[in-house]
Amino acid sequence: MSDAGRRERKKAATRASIVAAAHALFLERGFDEVSVREIADRADVSPTTVFAHFPQKEALAFGDEDERHERLVAAVAGRPAGTSISAALKAHYLAELTALAAEPQRRMLALMEQTPALVAYAERMWFRHEGALIAAVTEEFGLAEPSDEIRFYVRFALQIQLSAARDADPRSTIDAGFRLLDEGWLRYHDEVKA
Known about the structure:
By secondary structure, the protein is mainly alpha-helical. Helices cover 75% and strands 0% of the residues. The chain contains ten helices and no strands. The longest helix has 27 residues, at 3-29. It is globular. The chain starts with a helix and ends with a helix. The relative contact order is 0.09.
């Protein structure tokens, strides 16, 4: 076993321990009532170690941010042949919402929705995926640079997920959002592919 592999495993274990401690404390007392020092103490690390893994306290509520990014990009770039980008994103969004409805994610989601700082952070975090999705779609079209249409498509497609996450009927919101988005997108898609 290499030293690099061991370091990476240790780093991942420390990160997971910090996230578990943060989530437990947030659920016990609320996000605003918990300090980074308390999280560090519960995880048996220093506050400096917490900040080495998470740039700000809000990031602790989203410990799976990197994995969510990878899954989102893979939903588009690795979709089956014959599956449209919108169909792949719709399926991905619905799967993510289903996962968030299960315990313990459901409790963390409820906490997030009650905490304005976490709502704002979640929206900023979600739009960090924009550049990677734009790159994946641009590459698929064989373009050197993304078009305005690709930029707008990705921005609006990401907005659909944010709207659906707050809606009592997320499936309906996702369907309606992509139905409206696809009317213009399919025309553009056919023009570029022609």
